[in-house]
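Reply to dn_fold:

You asked what the input looked like. This is it:
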Amino acid sequence: MVEIQKLENAAEMLKAIAHPIRISIVGKLEAGKKLCVTEIHKALNIEQAVASHHLSILKNKGVLNVEREGKHCYYSLKHERLSQIIECVNKCQDY
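and this is what came back:
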C-alpha cells in the first residue's frame, strides 16, 4: 500500500516541475549533470534572475540538490528518475 505522505510529496514535486522553464531545467540536469545558475540561464536563454527563481522553487520542493563550490552553487537532480518523467512526457507528444 502506498503511503499518503509519499503521494503528497510526489504530487508537490510534479507540481513544481509543471512549468515550461522548470521542465527545461530538469531536462538540462539529466544524467547526473551539475550546473550553476549561469550555465542554466545561458543554456535556456533566460535572465539569471528568472533562472534563480525557478531553481529556488525546484530546490524547495525537493526536486534539486544544491552544492556550494567556492562562490558557485551547483544544481543537480535529487532523484535521477525525474528526468525519466520528462522523457516520458516528450515521448507521449510523439503520438
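The longest helix spans residues 4-17.
Hope that clears it up.
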